[in-house]
Amino acid sequence: MLKIGLTGGMGSGKSIVAQYFHALGYPVYDTDWHAKYLMQHDNSLHEQLIATFGIAVFVDNKLNKKHLASLVFNSPEKLAILNQLVHPCVKADFLRWVGSQSSPMMFLESAILFESNFSSIVDHTIVVTAPEPLRMARVMLRDGMSKEAINERLKYQWAENDKIMMADYVIINDDRHSIIDQCNGILSKLTES
């Protein structure tokens, strides 16, 4: 079973690439979705979050994502604490998920694949990249975020070039190169190895 890590900065298009691989029949584990699910449903993690950040991180027993984001994206220390609580749970959940799959290849989608050291639990890595102005425009359109808010979040992610240097494969999503051709080329190389 090949485990492939898939990453890219905000607006790079990594989710579109993940959707393409999923459409081809490959299982995809979305770390962002699973992290939110675990924060709400894993009792131990749920209790640790309340003990660390206060009861307001949950409203009517649902994760208050806006409140939690307002706490951690203004404080590198609090973000580090949150990551120390959440990342081990996500890694353990991913490895359980891998054990339930029968596909010869599966994908781990994570915006912070290298920053979180999730890259240590996969066999190969793919970075999806796009020019920064295009990424900014995509996120502003998709999420309605200001440039300042986007830049605040990007401060906690590695620079694109650092991710590219660490990756085994790179997909350029600049609206000029075919994503499908690049994905298929990578799949051919992975299935040959």
Plain-language structure description:
By secondary structure, this protein is an alpha/beta fold. The chain has 2 domains: 1-27 and 103-188, Rossmann fold, CATH 3.40.50; 35-100, Rossmann fold (3-Layer(aba) Sandwich). It has 9 helices and 7 strands. It has helices spanning 14-23, 31-41, 43-53, 65-72, 76-99, 132-143, 147-154, 160-166, 179-192; strands at residues 2-7, 28-30, 58-59, 62-63, 105-109, 124-129, 169-172. The strands form 2 sheets. Strands 2-5-1-6-7 form a 5-stranded parallel β-sheet, sandwiched between helices. A two-stranded antiparallel ribbon has the order 3-4. Helix 2 packs across helix 5 (76-99) and helix 3 runs antiparallel to helix 5. The radius of gyration is 17 Å and the shape is globular. The model has no long low-confidence stretch (mean pLDDT 90).
Order of strands across the main sheet: 2-5-1-6-7
Overall average residue pLDDT: 90
In the predicted model, the low-confidence regions spanning at least 5 consecutive residues are none
Strand content: 5-15%
Given helix and strand content, the structural type is alpha/beta
CATH superfamily of the largest domain: P-loop containing nucleotide triphosphate hydrolases
Instruction: Just give the CATH class of the largest domain.
Output: Alpha Beta
Q: Count the helices. How many?
A: 9
Count of separate structural domains: 2
How many runs of DSSP E, i.e. beta strands? Answer: 7
Cα Rg? 17 Å
SSE series: EHEHHEEHHEEHHHEH
CATH topology of the largest domain: Rossmann fold
Apparent shape: globular
Whole-Å distance between the termini? 12 Å
* Helical content (DSSP H or I, runs of 4+): 40-55%
Indicate the CATH architecture of the largest domain: 3-Layer(aba) Sandwich
